[in-house]
Amino acid sequence: IADAHLAHGRAPETILIELFAWSARELGALWDDDQVSFVDVTIGLCRLHEALHRISEQTEAQRKSETTEAPSILIAIAPGEQHVFGVLMAGELFRKKGWSVTTETSGDPSAITALMASRRFDMAGLSVSHEGAKEGITHLLKAMRKASKNPATKLIVGGQLFEHSPHIAHEIGADGIAGRGL
Length: 182
What we know:
single chain; alpha/beta; 5 strands
């Protein structure tokens, strides 16, 4: 389906947001309603990952080359998170807009803060889906600010938790909330 959309001139960004994000949300809803098994969800997400990589490779030649002047972003999953597809998709969308993107999908706080200390990021984002991560995210955001090579780095959060409770972003010390892409 994605290949057909590309062949008909649809922008890769549109396909990612309208088709892939929708598909991932639908898989989650089907899982929540016990309409599909863990295996079904795993296979579906694997296929989405493959299609994301294929679109990324097909449009690589169209990308603006990253320069040292390109804005930079670190996009990571929060500790305890298992869902990485949104982070990878957000990274691809930022790349398409000319950003220099680093993704961190281990959820390891020390790896995230080490990245913040190793490079000057203009923005850093954390993907969080559950309220149980709230306290750990507060500490991680403070550690990220402290480790950052750029004192002006904006720290954003995104994910299902903030779609339902946007006020939490302010409570934990984030500078803003990302939309459904993160």
